[in-house]
Design a protein that fits this description.
The protein has about 80 residues and is mainly α. Helices cover about 90% and strands about 0% of the residues. The protein has helices at about 5-50, 55-84. Helix 1 packs across helix 2 (about 55-84).
Length: about 80
C-alpha cells in the first residue's frame, strides 16, 4: 500500500501540538524571565546615560521599580479576586 506521507505529517503535527501544550507551563516562566532580563539590560544602559548615575545604581533602581510594580499588580489581582 502506497503512502503519500500525510499520515506521518499529521502524527508529527499532533505530537508537536501536544508537546507545546504540555511544556508551555514550564517554558513560559523561563521565556518571560529572558524577555524581562533583555529589556532590563537595555533600560539600564539608557537610564544610566540619561541620569548620569552608574550602571549599578541604575540597575538597582530598575530592580526596585520592577519589584514595586510586581507587588502592586499582585495586590490588585488579589483584591479583585476577593471582590469577585
Amino acid at each position: 500500500m502506497a503512502s503519500n506521507g500525510f499520515l506521518f505529517v499529521g502524527l508529527l503535527t499532533g505530537a508537536g501540538v501536544f508537546a507545546a501544550l504540555f511544556l508551555l507551563p514550564w517554558l513560559a516562566p523561563l521565556l518571560h524571565l529572558l524577555v524581562i532580563a533583555g529589556l532590563g539590560a537595555g533600560l539600564v544602559g539608557a537610564a544610566a546615560a540619561v541620569t548620569g548615575l552608574g550602571w549599578g545604581v541604575s540597575a538597582a533602581c530598575l530592580v526596585a521599580a520592577g519589584a514595586v510594580l510586581t507587588l502592586a499588580v499582585d495586590l490588585v489581582r488579589r483584591v479583585l479576586a476577593l471582590l469577585h
